[in-house]
């Protein structure tokens, strides 16, 4: 197992040890390398790249600096390979052990930071969004799975270690996105520092919903796609029941081999989000 800066190595005997749990609690995140093998990532990538698949539901929002952020979000995991990834034990089970609580699938997201045009993501906490959804507590988190290599040149994630301990920071609209108060972020960064999270395809970043993170625009010749799965504590379901996208279903975990065994291509029933109904972004049809 590597030191905390290089992350932890996934393998057949991987377990969330007390050391891994304490690292997550202290830093607000952990990186686990090689969670998915080449065959699994190839199969996931093939599904995500289908013209008549998930990416047909993608939309763009401005980043406040002339770039575009391209993404799509859905509420239910489904039975296809993306659903198997979201529900497999090495992702969902690991997240439950890190939080020490029963979780359920909150949403999935495909982030498509295209070569040369992929915009930046401003500093934010995921709970800055989810607080506005009506979740009372920050007992929530995200798993960022690298589909492509993610590095400094194509806009990898940057995080402020330990910033989840600051609690929720006020968020406002920045460009087309919801972002954290810039002066507050500056002071937190001055105190805690910053780390770039460079990842290979198949690596996974598990992080707390109050961890401050951002990513720069992609000015490189290579794209940077990522698949993200968000989880919420079962006892933290949003009180805002008027939003049709906040759907609670018990998390039905599947074995890790379900990813390669999955033969379902149907993506119906995932409940893809309409950006016009999302109050945490500013959507422009002309982008």
UniProtKB/TrEMBL annotation:
Top-level taxon in the UniProt lineage? Eukaryota
Cofactor(s) annotated in UniProt: Fe cation
- Database matches in InterPro entries: Phytyl_CoA_dOase-like
Please give the Pfam families that the UniProt record associates with this protein.
PhyH (PF05721)
**Record-linked PANTHER family:** PHYTANOYL-COA DIOXYGENASE DOMAIN CONTAINING 1, PHYTANOYL-COA HYDROXYLASE
Give the protein's recorded name: Uncharacterized protein
**Organism per entry:** Owenia fusiformis
- Which taxonomic lineage is given here? Eukaryota, Metazoa, Spiralia, Lophotrochozoa, Annelida
